[in-house]
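Saturday, quiet lab. Running sequence design on the structure tokens for the scaffold JK sent over.
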């Protein structure tokens, strides 16, 4: 039963409270979804950056391996053995 006098009934009050909680719940859910989306973008950016660093490091390692392989024929076997022993001791 509605009252026309401008007084809100208990049922209307409960309905308004329920609607408010639903609206607040949707708002919170949207905020959480936006936060999750932002975090996902940050993580994807970090993954790309780490992949790029890995590629550069692998290329640099390959460059040093190639340089060492080309330069080793210039070093006598005895000196090469001494260098290997010293590097193992360090």
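Result came back. Writing it out in full:
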């Amino acid at each position: 039963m509605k009252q026309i006098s401008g007084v809100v009934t208990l049922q209307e009050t409960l309905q308004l409270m329920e609607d408010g909680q639903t609206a607040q719940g949707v708002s919170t859910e949207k905020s959480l979804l936006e936060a999750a989306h932002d975090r996902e973008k940050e993580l994807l950016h970090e993954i790309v950056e780490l992949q790029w660093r890995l590629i550069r490091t692998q290329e640099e390692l390959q460059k040093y391996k190639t340089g060492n392989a080309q330069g080793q024929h210039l070093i006598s076997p005895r000196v090469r053995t001494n260098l290997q022993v010293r590097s193992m001791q360090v």
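Notes for JK: Residues 45 and 89 are 41 Å apart (CA to CA). The mean pLDDT is 76. Ask whether to fix the surface positions before the next round.
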